[in-house]
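Appendix B: complex inputs.
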Amino acid sequence: MEFFFFPGSTYTWLSVMRIEALAALRGVPVRWRPFNVRAIMQEMDNRFLQGKPLKYRYMWRDIERRAALHGLDWNGPPEHPVDRNLEALRVATLAAAEGWGPEFARASFEDWFTHHRSPGVGGHTAQVIGRLGRDASAILARAEAPENLARIEAETDAARQVGIFGSPSFVVGEELFWGDDRLEAALDWARRPTLPTPMPPI
Amino acid sequence: MEFFFFPGSTYTWLSVMRIEALAALRGVPVRWRPFNVRAIMQEMDNRFLQGKPLKYRYMWRDIERRAALHGLDWNGPPEHPVDRNLEALRVATLAAAEGWGPEFARASFEDWFTHHRSPGVGGHTAQVIGRLGRDASAILARAEAPENLARIEAETDAARQVGIFGSPSFVVGEELFWGDDRLEAALDWARRPTLPTPMPPI
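Resulting structure:
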C-alpha cells in the first residue's frame, strides 16, 4: 500500500502514529511517500480550513477524540499551518529515499503534536534529525539538492496521477482512500478488494 | 441525540438508512432535525465539492464502499446537487414537526439513491408523500405555510448555534460530530462521554 502524506497535515499525525502497527497486523507492506499536498490543494482551490473557524474548532476536537479512541496521547492543538517553507517535506522526502522515512516522519510529528515544536521552523527539523543520531547539517544540505527537489516534484506528480487531493491518502493499485479514518479500510482492501468493480478513472 | 440533516446531502443517505437500527441497539433516542445546510455553507463560503471533480469522483466511490461495508444496496451515483428549491427540505421539516419525519426522510433518500428520482423536482416529493399514504397536495400546501418556513429558519439557527457546518451532523449536548463515519462515535458518546473535557465553545 502507498501512504501519501504531508509533514504539515493535521490528521496525518494519527496515521503516521498508527499505520505501522496496523499494517503489520495485516501483513501489508507500506511505502511511505511524502508529497506536496499544499501545491495540489492550491491548484484545486481546495481551501479545506482557511477562513473556516468552525471547521478548525471541530477538527481539533475530532482529532482529540480520535486520539483517545486509538490510545494516542493528546497535548492540545499544536500550531497550524506549519512547514510553510517545506523544510520538513524536503527532509521527509530525502529520508524516504534513504530508507529512514518512517523514522523521521514519526519523530517530526511527535515533535509537533506532543511537544508543540512546529516542523520547519526554529531549527526544529535539525533537532529532530540530531535526535535520530544523524548529521543534521549534511542532511539539510542534501535535502536542498536539485536531486531531492526533483523527487518532491515527482512524488507530487505521482499523487496527482491517482487523483489525490488531501493528506493522508492511501493507494492500493488504482483504489484511493482519503483520511486517517479510512486507514483500516485501505489496509483491508490491500489484503482483498471488497468491491468487484474498479475505481472509476480520473 | 440530535440528528441534523439536509435532504439533498449525499453522505446523509448512509446515516438516514443506518441511524434507527444503530440507535435502537444502544437505546439512544434520536431527534431528527432537517435544516438548511446549504444556507450555512454559503455563509461560510464552504464549497466542499463545487469545482472539485476529483473530490466528486472520490465521494461517490467512498459512498459506494461505505454502502457495501454497511450492507446497503448501491445503484450508482444519483444526480447531485438536488432539492435546489428546497421543496424536500420544507416537507421533511413539516414531517418532523408532525411526527413522520424519519418515515419521509427514508422514503425521500430511497427514491433518490435507489431509484434515481431526485428530491424536489418533477413531482417526486408528492409521489413520495403519496406512497406513504398521505395527502400530498394538503401536505405540500402546509409545507409552504409561513409557520413551516419559520421552522426551517429556527432549525437552521439551532444548527448554527452548535457550530454545525455540514450534513449529516450529530449533537449530544455541546458535543458535535460531523459525517456518517462519526455516527457510531456520536451514539457511543450519547451513552457515555468518552472524554472528560467539554467541547470548546464557539
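Chain B has one domain: 2-191.
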